[in-house]
Design goal:
Layout (H helix, E strand, L loop, with lengths): L2 E6 L2 E14 L10 H9 L7 E13 L2 E5 L14 H7 L9 E3 L5 H4 L15 E5 H7 L2 H6 L2 H14 L7 E4 L4 E3 L2 E5 L8 E7 L2 E5 L7 H4 L13 H18 L2 E3 L8 E7 L2 E6 L2
Parallel strand pairs: 4-5, 5-6, 6-7, 11-12
Antiparallel strand pairs: 1-2, 2-3, 3-4, 8-9, 9-10, 10-11, 12-13, 13-14
The structure holds zinc ion (ZN).
C-alpha cells in the first residue's frame, strides 16, 4: 500500500508514496566520510551496503476542509520506479482537482516536477502554489543560472519549466516563518538549498512537522547528522539546520515526516549516540 493516514486532532495527514530510486553506493554520496565508514553504518542496521534506496513520499494535509499537498514527487517526468503519487492519491480517495494548495519545500526536481506533467499540463489545476520567497528568488535568477556549473543548469531549467508561466495569482510566495493558514506554518531550514522551508501542522494541541530534506535517508544522515549528502548545497548550513530541527523534534516529541524517510515516512526521532534514530509509526 502506498498511502497511510494519520489523525492529528481535527486534521488528517496522509503520506503519499511516489516510488523510490536505487543508486549504487559510491564515494560521492556522502561527501565528508570515507566509503568504508558509510558502509559500516549501513551494515550496523542490517541494510545493504552496495546500494541505497532513496524513497520519495509527499504529504497531503486535510485541514479546515482544505487539502494541502506538501511537495509533489515526479508525476511522469521521473525514473520508471517513480510517479506513483497520483495512484496513491486516488487510493486515498482524492482526485488531483481536489487539491486546493500545493506547498513546495524547495525546488529540487523530486519535489517540484510533479506539479506539471511531461506534456506541460498542470497536474493540480485548481491549486494555488506556495513557494518560499528566497528559494524562488535563487532559482529564478538568470545570473545564477548562467554562473552555475553545467551539471546544475538542468535544475534551473526544470524550475522554469514547472513554475514559469503559472497564471497570475496562482503562485503565492511566502516568507519562511510565516503562517500559510491558521494551523499550517512555515519555518526556515536553509542549507540543503538556499530557501528550503519546513512546515508545522497544529490541531487540537497535536503537532506534525514535515521536515522535507533536512535529512536525506535517516539511516545515514540522522544517525550521523554531520555527514553531508551530495545534494546539500551548503553542507555546513545544512548540518546546523539538521541538528537544530532534530533537537527540537526530540525535545518536543513531535511527530515528523520526511520526503526521503522509509515509507510510511512519518514517525518520531530519538537521540541516539552522536545523532538521532528515526522510529517509523507502526
Ligand atoms: Zn529531495
Amino acid at each position: 500500500m502506498g498511502f497511510k493516514r494519520m489523525k492529528l486532532g481535527a486534521a488528517e495527514i496522509i503520506a503519499l508514496h511516489d516510488g523510490a530510486l536505487r543508486r549504487p553506493l559510491g564515494d560521492e554520496f556522502v561527501r565528508n566520510a570515507p566509503l568504508e565508514q558509510v558502509k559500516a553504518m549501513l551494515a550496523s542496521q542490517n541494510l545493504p551496503t552496495d546500494y541505497v534506496d532513496i524513497p520519495f513520499t509527499a504529504f497531503l494535509v486535510v485541514l479546515g476542509g482544505k487539502k494541502f499537498l506538501l511537495d509533489t514527487g515526479f508525476a511522469d517526468n521521473g525514473p520508471p520506479t517513480t510517479g506513483q503519487l497520483r495512484a496513491n492519491l486516488a487510493a486515498a480517495g482524492y482526485k488531483p482537482e481536489d487539491i486546493d494548495h500545493v506547498v513546495l519545500s524547495h525546488f529540487h526536481g523530486d519535489h517540484i516536477n510533479g506539479l506539471r506533467a511531461k506534456d506541460s499540463t498542470l497536474v493540480y489545476p485548481n491549486a494555488k502554489v506556495h513557494v518560499p520567497k528566497p528559494e524562488h528568488a535563487f532559482w529564478m535568477d538568470d545570473a545564477k543560472m548562467d554562473a552555475a556549473p553545467p551539471a546544475m543548469k538542468g535544475a534551473f531549467q526544470a524550475v522554469r519549466r514547472v513554475l514559469g508561466g503559472l497564471p497570475a495569482g496562482q503562485l503565492v510566495p511566502f516568507e519562511p516563518g510565516a503562517d500559510l493558514v491558521p494551523g499550517l506554518s512555515s519555518s526556515a531550514a536553509f542549507g540543503h538549498t538556499p530557501g528550503m522551508s519546513i512546515f508545522t501542522v497544529k490541531s487540537e494541541g497535536q503537532s506534525f512537522v514535515y521536515v522535507a530534506d533536512v535529512t536525506n535517508i535517516p539511516s545515514l544522515f540522522a544517525r550521523s547528522p554531520d555527514w553531508a549528502v551530495q545534494f546539500d548545497m551548503d553542507a555546513e548550513m545544512a548540518r546546523q539546520t539538521r541538528r537544530r530541527v532534530f533537537d527540537m523534534l526530540v525535545k518536543d516529541k513531535t511527530m515528523a515526516g520526511g520526503f526521503h524517510f522509509p515509507f510510511p515516512a512519518f514517525g518520531s526521532l530519538e537521540a541516539a549516540g552522536n545523532g538521532y534514530q528515526f522510529k517509523p509509526v507502526a
